Every structure is written in C-alpha cells, then in structure tokens.
Amino acid sequence: QQPVQSPQAVILREGEDAVINCSSSKALYSVHWYRQKHGEAPIFLMILLKGGEQKGHDKISASFNEKKQQSSLYLTASQLSYSGTYFCGTENGSSQGGSEKLVFGKGTKLTVNP
Amino acid sequence: KAGVTQTPRYLIKTRGQQVTLSCSPISGHRSVSWYQQTPGQGLQFLFEYFSETQRNKGNFPGRFSGRQFSNSRSEMNVSTLELGDSALYLCASSLGQSFYNSPLHFGNGTRLTVT
User: How far apart are CA A91 and CA A72, in angstroms?
Assistant: First the structure.
C-alpha cells in the first residue's frame, strides 16, 4: 500500500511554482509531507488530517482530498532552498488513536535553479 | 533539546555477518520507527515500537528484528547479511501514540555497506 507520488522529478527556475501529488489505494487517515536534502535526514513539513485540519509550514501549502484518496503539495514562488526530495507518508486507519503504520512514497526530486 | 541520535553513522560488514544499529529518540518520545532507504525505493517501513511493544512490522524477512527498551531507546538487528541489505537505515521518533497528529523526527541514519 505504498502511496504513489508524481512527478518523479521536476526542475524549476527560482520563482516558479510546482505541485507534487500523492495518491493512495486505501482510505487516508492522515498524510505527512517531508523534505530530504542530499546527505541529510528528512525533515517534517506538514501533516494533513482526515476532516480537513492542516498543520505545518507557512511557506508551503497542501491539500487533502479524502474522496480521491490523494494529497497535493504546493510550492509557490520556489526558492533555491526548496531543492530536495519530497516524500509523502500516508497513514491508513479507521479510528483516531489507531496504530496504523506510516508508509512513504518513493519521493519526488525537486531541483530549483537560479 | 537533543535530536534523534543514531549510531554508528557508517558500517561496513561482510555477507553473512550480523549487525546491530542503535537509536536514541528525542527525550519524551515513546514511539520509534525504522526505515530502510535505498535509491529509487524511497523509505521502506521496517517496524515501529511504542512503549517497548512492536506495533507494526513491514514486509521484510525475519532476519530483520528490533526491540525497544524502557528508556525508549531502540535497536535493530540484521542477521545473515546479504548484499541487498546495503542501505541507509533511518530511525524516527514521535511524541504521540499514533501518527495522526504526531510528526516524525528523523535521525541522520546509519549507512550500512555489505561486501
């Protein structure tokens, strides 16, 4: 039940926008987004929760479509620092407090050039 | 507050040997998850522990095992190493009892090379 991310890679010029999609074959309970720079640990960006609540980063936004079982990460007016690999992690559960595992997609490599 | 600490950072082992990796979570975090990262495969879930109990396990062979101690520190063990086990092993801790509203905090990983 690994989520599917698209695109696999994207190259932008500084200031351009990008959208990264994450789709699951199972009902989503929560979606996590992380960014990993080369040689570093993944860092948390935001969590999207079933029911519409959103947490996280104020310069990057995301949506969560429960019906379509997908989430999208929106990067607007990209900066050089946005470069890295973005991972979505999905939790498939049916009740709050459940102990479903967090499964990650294969990642989307984002390169922002000057 | 100290972050997630993984030791060692690098490890070179020979096929057939076994290895133990260690993870110290952020103080107060009771959940520890382990992931294997290889190029092109993303983060593959190994297992997750909460309060010394394994709550979830990924699709890895029985050669991969783990445990969590009463102080929330965790270890994972790989026995009878194979060349395909070469990877970056990431440990992540989280505060909550579920991932629903609790982000993961990752360590820098242990880079395992099997020759």
Answer: 15
